[in-house]
Amino acid sequence: MSDTDESLSWFEVGTVEELKGQQCRRLYTPSKQYLALFCVKGSEFYATSAQCPHASGPLDQGDIEDMGNDTYLLTCPSHFYRFDLKTGVSTTGLKLKTYPTEVRDGKVFVKAPELVSIKSIKPLT
């Protein structure tokens, strides 16, 4: 999926206080194209596709490693491919889809192509 910045909108997904206690949460969408929201250091948020581009592994169940210099690597639990949380780049040549995040007035926002929520959303019919 390749989205231009104009095709994305900002969606509030929760407060920093509510989201900082869990390193990763699945974000739900009406089309079931799930995203993953990662929290590092209790206040930095990153959003990616929830599926590994290699074999659709569940990235919302992956591990995050702090590499220093504000670099965090996400490891897919299926085949252990690793992706940079900020850029989506992997040493395998694959690229994970990433989405911009912002914290405003204590609330976390994700810029995505459709509504995202930490709660399940009724699928499109």
From TrEMBL:
<dbReference type="InterPro" id="IPR012748">
    <property type="entry name" value="Rieske-like_NirD"/>
</dbReference>
<protein>
    <recommendedName>
        <fullName>Rieske domain-containing protein</fullName>
    </recommendedName>
</protein>
<dbReference type="GO" id="GO:0008942">
    <property type="term" value="F:nitrite reductase [NAD(P)H] activity"/>
</dbReference>
<dbReference type="Pfam" id="PF13806">
    <property type="entry name" value="Rieske_2"/>
</dbReference>
<dbReference type="GO" id="GO:0046872">
    <property type="term" value="F:metal ion binding"/>
</dbReference>
<feature type="domain" description="Rieske">
    <location>
        <begin position="10"/>
        <end position="110"/>
    </location>
</feature>
<keyword id="KW-0479">Metal-binding</keyword>
<keyword id="KW-0411">Iron-sulfur</keyword>
<dbReference type="GO" id="GO:0042128">
    <property type="term" value="P:nitrate assimilation"/>
</dbReference>
<dbReference type="InterPro" id="IPR017941">
    <property type="entry name" value="Rieske_2Fe-2S"/>
</dbReference>
<keyword id="KW-0534">Nitrate assimilation</keyword>
<keyword id="KW-0001">2Fe-2S</keyword>
<dbReference type="GO" id="GO:0051537">
    <property type="term" value="F:2 iron, 2 sulfur cluster binding"/>
</dbReference>
<dbReference type="InterPro" id="IPR036922">
    <property type="entry name" value="Rieske_2Fe-2S_sf"/>
</dbReference>
<keyword id="KW-0560">Oxidoreductase</keyword>
<keyword id="KW-0408">Iron</keyword>
